[in-house]
Structure formats: structure tokens, C-alpha cells
Amino acid sequence: MDRTNQTDFQNTFERMKQLLRTEDSFDVLYWKFLVGGREAAYFFLNGFVKDDIMQKITSSFVSIKEEDMPQDANKFSEKYLSYLQVEMNKEEDTIVKNVLSGVVAMFIEGYPEAYLIDCRDYPARGVEEPEKDRVMRGSRDGFVETVVFNTALIRRRIRSTELTNEMYTVGRASKTDIAVCYMRDRVDQQFLKDLIRRINEIDIDALTMNQESLAECLYKRGWWNPFPKYKYTERPDTAAASILEGGIAILVDNSPSAMILPCSVFDILEEADDYYFPPVTGTYLRLARFMITLLTWILTPTWLLLMRNPEWVPEWLAFIFPAEEIQVPLIWQLIILEFAIDGLRLAAVNTPNMLSTPLSVIAGLVLGDYAVQSGWFNSEAMLYMAFVVLANYSQPSFELGFALKFMRLITLLLTQIFNVWGYIFGVLFTIFCVCQNRTLSGKSYLYPLFPFNGREFLRRFVRISLPKTENK
Asked: Cβ neighbours of residue 137 under 8 Å, at least 6 residues apart?
């Protein structure tokens, strides 16, 4: 072997050790060996490699003799690297990025390119049904933290050559993989180009909060408007259905959910159970969810307005008045309960599973019965807030639930300060926030209500077979 080739290999080997900082990181490994009398080396991450595949590839090199080694690197790949996912590259940045992503980089003396062998084996949990997006009937699989697995779950449901999964990388330090999934013949091409342009223009060190960081980078304006512009789902069937309707699903590595866009408020309110039951049942579930969602926003402000104007209450509704003497003003009762419920929710998230049930019982007894007996709260205020909390979980979006909560608090405060005019202004302000919000494609957040499309509007509430007229 030419001495120059040996020097080049040694320089490359030392350079890769320096770039990957193998002496500082215990999980970045290298292994030197011989192939046909030439020096060779692997660079890989511990825990990301399928050991059995690497063992088979390496064992196949044992029988290669020095005279069998071709002069061309491509010939070596064709003759001796029978593994499917192998590509060649000589760019240092690309090689380092691939190694840190779990790909094995192999260098052979005399060949200028590195062989990138993709035999990754990511640590991953099973595709069990997600905790949040449960259904009464339907498939029981869910997205996981590995983006390749998630695209496979969508591909399993859409066996069409028009399904396109494009991969991008965002973040100077994190280099997070992002998959953009869409149907080439159904997607809004102009919106797709704009979305890809926004992704390519993102200049950020790392997507520390995965999808939330990406969402804030894609849309930086209108931070004061809490109504969500994205629909999040952990169900591959929901994501596949949205893609088939012309939407785009964005999958972020290390995040077990998909971002669906563009979406209106009616898209966010939809749930998988609406389609897993017969049309009559699905229509009922959808209408019930819509009405209950409205009540979570307007119930307590309306009750407070009536309590401030008792002369408006007819006799047949007299039972809504508090039966006990009011010790704490109703507005403070409702606001304290709003924050107390959020405190209980945060406590439940951080409570070990073995203690969650007994602590929930204790919290229910103390904050329920004893809080009323002590005079802090009236039973009617507790009842209405309990309904609001439970009803908030009738729709699948956390983001929409918090948006309605903020609007409810604003309407409560305005009603307390300005009475009926404050109530009217709070309602109008909420309607303004919804109407002012727009989808990422720039279209109405209330489509098909505004601009009105009769067929599409009927489709949002009634499970009937109507041809779609246009994308949102």
C-alpha cells in the first residue's frame, strides 16, 4: 500500500476523533480493524447501532484479500457492502451530523469517501394508545418519540405514491429532524411552498421544546391571541385523515405527536370518535361537544351577571341563587376556584401514580365539602366550576381549553366591574379574538362559517356524504 494513502487515512482518522471529541464523550466510539490488508475504522454512537447487523457486515470483510481490494470506492461498496442503506460522502459536516444522528461512518485506507451505514436502532417505547387521545372505538396505536416510526405509521394507512414525506433539519446545535407529510396531488401548493420557506429560514440554536419551539418559529406574530393555530394529535389515524383532506402534518423528532395545519376552530374541535361511530351517533357527539365547549366559556360569567341583576331571573330559575349566605364575593370565589383547579391539575401531573388516587380523594373531600362548610365558597359556585372543569375535557385540545379559560376570566372581571356592559364587551372581545385569528395559510379561522360555505358548514356538524368543495 502506498505510504501516502496510509498518511491520508491517519490524518482523516485523527481529524474525525478531534471533530467528534471521542476522548471527551464516552458514548462516541471508534474501532480500528483491517480490511483486505488496509486499515479501516468505524465511528458510531454507543446505544444507537444494531449490533447484529454490524457484526454481519464486519464478518463479511474477513475473507477479503489484499489483491481483492478494488481501486474505486464505489466498486468496494457494490461488491462487499451488501447492506441496503449505505451512501458515500466526503463532507466533514455531513459525516459528523450523520454519526451524531446514529449512523455508522466507516473509513478505509485508500478511499477518500466515508461509507455511511444506516443501521440505527433508536431507543423507543411501544406504539400504545396515547393517554390524551383515547377513543371508545378504533385503532389503539399512537405516535412515539422516533420520527421514522411515526412516518411509517402514516404510510401504513396511506399506501399511495402521492404521499410525500420530506425531511428537514432545524437548529444549529440540536439539528432536530422535522418531517413534513402531505399528499402531493391534494395539498395547497402555494401554502406548502410558504411553509417550507419558513422552515428553511428558521435560525435557532435548538428546538428545546420540540414542537412548541417550532410553532413559535413558524408564526411569530399575534402572541397575545391565545386561540391555537395548530391542531396537535398523537393518533396516526387522525393525522392520516387530515393529510387525505389536503392538510399537512409536521412530525418533530423526540415528540410523540403531529402538528396539523392549516386548521380552523372547527378542525380543532373534531375528534376521532366522530368517525368511528355511525353517522347519527357521530353527529350527536360532535354537536354535544360543540355546545359543551361554548358552555365552558360562558356559563360562569352568565351566572355572575344574573347574580348581579337578580330582577332578571324568572321565578322558575330562582334555584340558581345561592342557598347559603355569601361570605366571600362571588367574583373572588370563581377566580380562586379557577386558580385552585389549575393548582390541583399541576399537582396531579407531578404526583406518582400510586398516590394519585388517594390524594385525589383527600383533595376532593377537603376542597369540596369542607370548603363549603367553612364559608369560603358557596355550593353553587363549586357546582358551576366543577362543570366547567369536567366539560373542558370534552374537547381534545389543551390549547383551546386554555384559550377559553383566559376569555372566561376576562369576561368575569369585566362583568364584575361594568355589569351588563362588561359582559357584552367580554363576549365581543372573545368573538373578536376568534375572528381576528387566521390560519397559517392566511384564511379565515372560522371557515366555513365565515366566509360562509353551506356544504362545508353542514359537514362540520352532520355526518353526511357531501363532496368537498375546496381546501380550507
From this structure: 273, 276, 277
Give the span between the Cα atoms of 236 and 255, in whole angstroms: 13
Residue 467: pLDDT band with limits 50, 70, 90? very low
Give Cβ neighbours of residue 374 (< 8 Å, ≥ 6 apart).
none
For the residues 97-108, what does the mean pLDDT come to?
A: 92
pTM of the model: 0.86
Lookup: cell for 85? 442503506
Residues near 211 by beta carbon (within 8 Å), at least 6 away in sequence: 232, 250, 252, 255, 257, 259
Q: Mean pLDDT of all residues in the chain?
A: 88
Q: 379-392 and 398-436 are packed helices; what angle lies between their axes, rounded to 10 degrees?
A: 90
Q: Cβ atoms within 10 A of the Cβ of 85, count?
A: 11
Distances (CA, A) of 71 to 78, 110, 300, 388: 13, 8, 80, 74
48 CB-side CA count, 13 A: 19
What is the CA 44 to chain-centroid distance, rounded?
29
CB atoms within 10 A of CB 312: 10
Contact 141, 128 (CB under 8 A): yes
- At residue 125, the pLDDT reads 78
